[in-house]
Amino acid sequence: MDEAKKEGRYKRLVVQIEELLKKSPDDISAMATISSVLFNKMDYFFWVGFYRYTGIKLIVGPYQGPPACQVLEGKGVCLASAEKKKTVIVPNVHEFPGHIACDSRSNSEIVVPVKNRAGEVVAVLDVDSKDFGSFTNIDAQYLEQIVKFLEKWS
Ligand code: SME
Question: Which atom of ligand 1 is nearest to 93's Cα?
Answer without folding.
Answer: 1
